[in-house]
Amino acid sequence: MNNKSTLSHRKEEPENGILYLVGTPIGNLNDISQRALNILQNVSLVACEDTRQTKKIMNKFNISNKLISFNKHNSLIKIPKMVRDLKHGKSIAIVSDAGMPGICDPGEDISNSARSEGLDIVCIPGACAAITALVSSGFPSSNFVFEGFLPRKKIDRSKILLEISKNEKTTIIYESPKRLKKLLKELYEFCGGDREIMVARELTKKFEEQVGNNINEVIEFFNAKNVIGEITIVLKGINKKSDFNINKSSMKKDLNDLINAGLSLSAASKYLAKKNGVKKSEIYNLI
Ligand code: SAM
């Protein structure tokens, strides 16, 4: 594999033996970058999730190139073949139906295989629904959790929902419009109706919609609607501080119980502070 300094001086024209992961729009075709178009035009071949989708971009920008299909159904056969082509000097662009390849889309496995074979990978960044929704939400964005699509199996799903309910970080979830109401109901059960949320529908498209402010309001908004289009959900993390205020009386009781059981005020406060993720002085102040 070439070292990083070689990569950083790469020319804009595709080079032989390189795997390009090309980000494409999540709705508005004008979000494609000049670099992406250049790569799509000039690589040896473009491997796309659905050739019909990629053709829409190619046609709009008058690009023609060899397209092959590459998706979860044929990846086991296609990956070794593409690795061979790369080793023989071909340049390949990976394109998913929308957004960044590899983000809940094909791309991860081929880049993994290419990297373990010592091949060079270059990502041409583009739109991503998760990041677009996160930034639009206005929720804390320097630390966040991306869950993608939640697991369908009940036990796995409940585990993740429980984690989300306790998470202080902003959480981003992808969901199909058919299952949005069910997921909102589950979020209500696990997180309560007051938790702040933003449901982004059809981002970057003509009928883009961003619905908030809390789970109760969003459930009410979608209740009588037939939900269609692409959906991304952004959930604000819990505020341990306000949770602390809500739970003050039960913590005071815990503190008294621990002291009655023989712990010193200092030891009991330390224990409760750790358990509740707050400062020891805040537990002290309860007395
Ligand atoms: N690779 C894509 C990306 O970078 O965002 C994600 C692909 S994943 C198969 C498709 C999911 O992304 C949709 O079900 C939806 O949850 C979300 N999504 C894609 N486009 C969207 C849009 N325009 N508005 C809202 N969510 C979108």
Concise summary:
This protein is α/β, with parallel strands linked by helices and 287 residues long.
Written description of the protein model:
The protein has 287 residues and is of the alpha/beta class. The chain folds into three domains: 3-127, 3-Layer(aba) Sandwich (Cobalt-precorrin-4 Transmethylase, domain 1); 130-240, Tetrapyrrole methylase, C-terminal domain (Methyltransferase, Cobalt-precorrin-4 Transmethylase, Domain 2, 2-Layer Sandwich), CATH 3.30.950.10; 247-284, no CATH class. It has helices spanning 4-8, 34-42, 51-60, 75-87, 108-116, 129-137, 154-166, 180-191, 215-223, 240-246, 248-260, 265-276, 280-284, and strands at residues 18-22, 45-48, 67-69, 92-95, 120-124, 144-149, 170-175, 197-201, 209-211, 231-235. A five-stranded parallel β-sheet has the order 3-2-4-1-5, with helices on both faces. A five-stranded mixed β-sheet has the order 6-7-10-8-9. It is elongated. The model is unreliable at 1-11 (pLDDT under 50). Residues 26-27, 96, 98-100, 103-105, 128-130, 174-176, 200, 202-205, 230-232 line the site of S-adenosylmethionine.
Keywords:
287 residues; alpha/beta; Cobalt-precorrin-4 Transmethylase, domain 1; Methyltransferase, Cobalt-precorrin-4 Transmethylase, Domain 2; five-stranded parallel beta sheet; five-stranded mixed beta sheet; binds S-adenosylmethionine
